[in-house]
Amino acid sequence: MIIVRVDDHAQHHATEMHLGQLIPSVESPARLQVIERAVHAAGFDDVHDAQCIELSLLERVHSPQYIEFLSTAYERWRAAGYAGDAMAYTWPARHAGQTRPESVVGQLGYHSFSADCSISAGTAGAARNAAAAAATAATHALQVGSAFAMHRPPGHHATRDQFGGYCYLNNAAVAAQRLRDLGAAKVAVLDIDYHHGNGTQDIFYARDDVLTCSIHADPANRFPWFIGYAAERGVGAGEGSNLNLPLPLGSAFDAWRDALHVAIAAIRKAGCDALVVALGVDTFEHDPISDFKLKTEHYPLVGTDIAALQLPTALIMEGGYLTEQLGENVAGVLQGFAQAHRGSSA
Ligand code: SP5
Ligand code: ZN
Fold first, then answer.
1. Is the distance from CB of 126 to CB of 9 less than 8 angstroms?
2. Does pTM top 0.85 for this prediction?
3. Which of 51, 85, 107, 199 is most buried, judging by how many CB atoms fall within 10 Å of its CB?
């Protein structure tokens, strides 16, 4: 398995609105340091730099207007004289028109859906590097069988033109689009982060060439609250190409693994020829913001189960917050996967 690394992620450290208080985001630079250390300690030494990502690929996933907004928002915010990180305070009211305000303050509301993250110095660059890592991992996956994009910030909450949930560019969607562009006829995205992959669902909702599956905490009780329900199955040509498997709060590995097997069966049935794994390990029993009950010993089994699909696979880092076992849990998935995946001789 190839490991794709990024530069400059530590310059992204946003502010999070948490139950009435602004705090440094739990999606911290320290997360990636811990993950990098554990992945290397586990013996993964085929490490490649992320290659620069073409704007044309990003624009097949995100709107050009949004990409431009992201890359200039922090400077515009500071130039307007505001302090701290760039953060919205007004979102479009229900039944509001589609007007996109001129001011950076209005645009922050237009281009975000939650206040758990903001745009700091370094956010645009780190997000771009993460998307680049995801695209690079997709390319390597087709060439050698599998690759892991080891980056932050995560991506699966970012929609075509909104950030939220610590996510700015949808790295998993970029990887899926890259796989399509390189010739995979049908791509599956399997999202195992604790939270629903709303952005990925949204981006591919009307498409039949990307099957999106997500196993997550019931949104009736957890972020992202308004999306992630089982009844959401896709629309138009994409009807039947979205599978949501919400689980009750407190779910343990047995129930979680049953859902994993449902998703894997759906991916097999759809005849997908490449796979993107949105790899969050915030399902861990001691995760500071989540409440599933997976244990460290379960993560290699997760990797093994996914490898049984025997598809070219790009594993894309998503959530999982700072705990003593964060790195070990990520490396555990990779090890379980690598041992069971036969890769490719191409
Ligand atoms: C990629 C990902 O896992 N995003 C999750 C975003 C969830 N944000 C809302 C949850 C708020 C938790 N706040 C934590 C404060 C810790 N004291
Ligand atoms: Zn998550």
1. yes
2. yes
3. 199
